[in-house]
Amino acid sequence: MRSVLPPLDLHAHIDVGVPEHELQGLGVVFAATRSLAEARQAVERRDETIIWGVGSHPGLARSHGSFEAATFRSLMEHTALVSEIGLDGGSKISLDRQLSTLRAAFDVLADQPRITSLHSYRATDALVDELAQRPVRGIVLHWWLGSARATRRAVDLGCFFSVNAAMFRSPGALDHIPADRLLTETDHPFGDRSSPLPRHPGGVLPVEHAIARKHGMQPEAVRRLMWVNLGSLVRDAACARLLSRRVRSLLVASASS
Question: Domains in the chain and their CATH numbers?
């Protein structure tokens, strides 16, 4: 598939020590971190097409133990992305502990919005409840597996959804997500295990083709739609100034094509 717009991957995991030249040609990738210690290294990078996130993974004890709202706020000043935070119903970490961290993050995001990629494994209803009580702009529900009711609630709350290849094996939630709220992701190396080799961040072509089949579109049109949707998300989070010049230029190109 030929397109002037590169692949768009809203959620992938990349080692923060990988040299920039090894990441060239992957497209535009939003890279999730799992702790503030990892995020501290990530936000010092100046990659043109990799947007590094500030994250505190809800399923990891070390992420909660090192989370400090002041540090979180400080790190956010350097990036347009908060990723990966949320709730994990499969973790041994108590839900109360997870909620404490998430609410502290939401308190910061309430007046300093960012593109925010949320984890919701086995906790979709609880996460939507939190979003209903603590409205935050710029929300992307990553690898969303919620019920029809929870999905419709999330749509009504203004959420976007980043979808990967694994989600099309059980596509129930996808039936309730409007096309203008969709974004592509790999969640490399987890969500792309069913994708053809080679698998890498930015390898969203199988997802684009799956979206195209579902919505009766051409894959080229899906690529453009993903960029248009990203533009809507960036405006919602009011964080364009924190994106690289290259990414901003691509957003302009997608809006005019």
Answer: 8-256 (3.20.20.140)
